[in-house]
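[step 3/7] fold_predict: job queued, chain A
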Amino acid sequence: MCQPLSRLLALVFSLFLVVAGAQAAKPIIDLKGTWRFQADPADKGISERWFSAKLRETIKLPGSMLENGKGDPVTLQTKWTGSIYDSSWYFNPRMEKFRRADNLKFPFWLTPDKHYVGAAWYQKEVNIPKSWKGQRISLYLERPHTETRVWVDDKEIGMENSMVVAHEFDLSAALSPGKHVITLRIDNRIKEINVGKDSHSLTDHTQGNWNGVVGKLELQATAPIWLDDVQVYPDIARKMAKVKMTVHSSLEKPVTGNITLNANSFNTSVKQQVKPLTAPFTLEGTKITLELEYPMGDNIQTWDEFDPALYRLTANLSTSTGLQSEKNVQFGMRDFGIDGTRFSINGRPIHLRGTVENCQFPLTGYAPMDVAGWERVFKIAKKYGLNHMRFHSYCPPEAAFVAADLVGFYLQPEGPSWCNHGTSLGDGKPVDQFIYEETDRMAKVYGNYASFCMLAYGNEPAGRNQAKYLAEFIKYWQAKDTRRKYTGASVGMSWPLVPENEFMVKSGPRNLPWDKRPASTENYRAKIADFNVPYLAHEMGQWCAFPNFKEIKKYTGVYKAKNFELFQEDLADRGMADLGERFLMASGKLQVLSYKNEMEMSLRTPGAAGFQLLSLNDYSGQGTALVGLLDAFWEEKGYLNEQEFTRFCNQTVPLARLPKFVYRNNETLQAEVELYHFGKAPLTKAKTSWTLTDEKGKKIASGAFEPKDVPIGSNFALGSINTALASIQKASKLTLTVSLDGTLFGNDWEIWVYPANLPDTRSNDIHFTTALDAKAEEVLKAGGSVFLQAAGKIEKGKEVVQHFAPVFWNTSWFKMRPPHTLGIVVDPKAPAFADFPTDYHSNLQWWEILNRAQVMNLEDFPASFRPLVQPIDTWFLNRKLGLLLETKVGDGKLMLCSADLTSDAENRPVAQQLLHSLTQYMQSDRFNPKETVNLSVIQALFTTPSRDTFKAYSNDSPDELKTKAQLKH
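[step 4/7] structure written:
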């Protein structure tokens, strides 16, 4: 046989073995299970060649050190990854007992069972089958945190550093058939690349700076020619999908073959098998990029929030020698566009009703790695009327994109950076290049997912050159990938504008105008008028509720709610342990009221693109920010359910423009009614009706509007309501309801009606005064009744600033920036309110009395004393506060009010009505206070400052409290 022929036969035979081996080999070796382990706090593992030694301990992967009980105990000296602006806990004498080792309770975020920052080593023996010879072998590590170095036996393979995608290592040259040892060194320190210690990708404020690998760990075998990157670019207008693919080869010779594309729908009732497409290719080097146009057929199914139709594309590579490689990707035929100042999906306008997801998963300390875990989150959010989620300074794992595709949810992941608080963006630091690399990786791995609609660098950066950097970042992505829309950063108002933004995420169109009498007529039009791109309200809401102490028992995982335990114990130390649940429920109702009014202002804003709440669920860090209507587990707290929330947050919401919520009975209730509608399709001959009912459900008035065709959009006028209130003879709370007939869509507003003329009930039996003077003391000593109206004269408690709106974010992070209170608790059945209808919590009629009113610090009152109206203090201080109280003083009886009930009576019907009710009560035999307080204690309210006041002990503050000059530097 001639030599050329023998060489040819040998080559054919060797290729046959490769093909046969590829067919016989299992393509994956799962590495989950027990690994050898050793922490390396002294960072000596490399110099001591730990990769050549047998590590001493064991650990379970996937998992974190924390889940495996590894790490150091949490102590006062723990060096946290995250800013602390209020260090008072470390110095306040009242907090001393919470600083003891046996009772350590840290208030600023959840407390992990253990804490570890540094290098840690992981080691596992593997057995490579003979059938893998000649294959490309890669190590796949999903969601390691954060820098990984890999050794096979004594040979170092390389290093990867990504917070957004799996780390992959080519081990082909090092893994021959037989036994080997794979060693990982994982380092979770912030090193040269500093994305910001408060970034949700790594901070202790949120998921925690853990060490480990929490996703898939496996060895993967593929042919020596393989498909590495398949990207699908939908073109709905042409019913086409452009498919870009990268083919790699480790064969040192030219390769020819075919690539076949095969797509089918898989999650819809209508099944579609797209006709396959085959095209030839030739690869002469080690890499080639191919581009094919794949006709999707005449009956394409599109993806959106209502019909999230998806396709699975299989790209199959087959060489002329029989080698094969296959890549499967999921995609949706969708066009996420911009139409003026709004986004669109497949040509239809959409309005984004979003929430910020802050990586709050306290059972594990990291985001779910399974699709079911993320489907739960998105389905809950969707039940609450939302269709959008921003991921604050982090990118979720692939499971989140898979789930959002299936549920139909629009996502804005971000680069893993809040480049602030110790670092900056655009100033030539390593993080500048890292952001490009990370977002490149995100687009490569997650770019096909239909839900991946928007992208930002991250959150609120520092840096003198940030605007220039972000402008270039946007241009880079506009040129590279048109499948989504781009903005530089999600920011507050003090950050510089980036004109290149395709859309804005900025805090202009948010907050409540409750510095004046509440109404439902305003919107945020003026805040967005200067912008010709979609403008999303950044981090809307941030209204707090009191801690839910029942939640403590839920923390059965790696984090414990020691912060909640501290707040609960401190409340008990203040003599108010019995009020925790009442504080939660009352503050929760004010929180809901605040969110409702702010969100409706957004829905009323012409041309607004949407909002991003901060957030639907609680944020456990930054001082414990209890801003969620749900808790950190995405579960109800007891004061709101999805049916109530979707009355004002839904695809279709009736809106009433009420000039006020408080009326006298000689007035007429007037309201302009409109419809916000961003449903699947326009409404045809929609019928809308309204009712006005009392607290017992009795109908006071009703009406209906003419049937109308309603387009997709906002501010569609339905008609006017005009109804006289003369039939209301006593102080009453009424409910105005507007309903879209035949649907579940409707909305409600509570209004209050008071008699225009009240009888003069002032009596000589009551001494009315504005000062605790000699006459008042004489009346009390004589056993008489005194009504002391002390507005503006309180000393003990004057440092407590009360607005009608509740605490914003929390008072710790913002160094006790006002407001300091969370509404009020009141007993609506108390006889003092017999002629003043009230709920057990703040409601809009109380604005007239509560907003900017002084409160009293009742620190010297008996522990059992409870005022008639008690403002709820910030949970960091838990002061016993009062606004209205009754007590016996000696033989006399005192009614004391620190709010103004008398000025401008003509324009203050609520104050007038409350004064009337209290006066009536004081003239009755029901006025018999249970508690007795010494006169000196009452006098101290007017003469002595509070003993316990806030001191931060810290000099630094968050950017929101800094001047523009400070931010520049």
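[step 5/7] annotate
The first strand starts at residue 28 and ends at 30.
Confidence is low (pLDDT under 50) at residues 1-25.
exit 0
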